[in-house]
């Protein structure tokens, strides 16, 4: 049981003053209420839940939030990556296992978080899976698994967070979707459909909770250098990965991909910066927005 050895036992999370303690939350100023924008560091003391935080974009989101002095509950199906983040960032990050497909587990963790660490200010849905296949070969299992994580997972986490945020009249939720939600991609039907559903779900939630001070937005990345992206490449072991990146950047008209106009593949931090902006008070008048971070790949300029 890898989590039995967590470096930050949940039950013993400090409750006194300090970064994990009570000093930060009450002292924060929310511009939605008084028109004052927080000074740098802009997310000081705020508590964020991030799913899929163990690697790739989720890990970059944790880093971006920590850099802005937020406290982060880093969760993932796979314990290794989030444990490493808790090690690295000391009392600013706690690691917990979470399978976002398990609605009861999500609700229990959010309840426990609020009980032991305080009110959730921010929830970021990053957990996602990609099962590529032409539709005619797509299995029922792959279709179901894709929607269970990419769509139902977003629903579970957002619902648990929104229940509490609306009661307090403040909070913000960001869902990391995909630019595949907005443009047809061969071999990615389940993935693209699941992400399109997650985008529309997040917008509908944003509409429902707007009058209660809660903002909900999506960030839609294009090709981003992570394990998920690498798994998409059909490179043999001895082929230069740079060649695979070049193919993505240049595009492939045979598969109706126009390439990336900005001429580079995204780094996970490019996506994390967009998330960090949307959860900050600088975005206080932005909700139900879908922010594309794809270097222009879907020609949305
Ligand atoms: N990398 C890209 O090119 C790209 C492009 C567009 C969108 N995205 C989206 O960004 C998000 C992050 O992608 P990434 O590239 O970092 O992927 P990744 O595969 O590197 O990381 C995904 C993380 O989600 C976790 N996860 C998977 N199933 C889970 C579950 N049931 N519960 C909790 N955690 C689970 C994994 O353990 C992993 O740590 C995903 O939602 C993905 O669809 C990625």
Automatic annotation (TrEMBL):
Enzyme nomenclature, EC number: 1.3.1.28
Keywords assigned: Oxidoreductase
Biased composition (Basic and acidic residues): 29-39
Region (Disordered): 1-40
Key word S-adenosyl-L-methionine present: no
Keyword Oxidoreductase appears in the UniProt entry: yes
Recorded family membership: Belongs to the short-chain dehydrogenases/reductases (SDR) family.
Protein name per its UniProtKB record: 2,3-dihydro-2,3-dihydroxybenzoate dehydrogenase
Native source organism of the sequence: Streptomyces dengpaensis
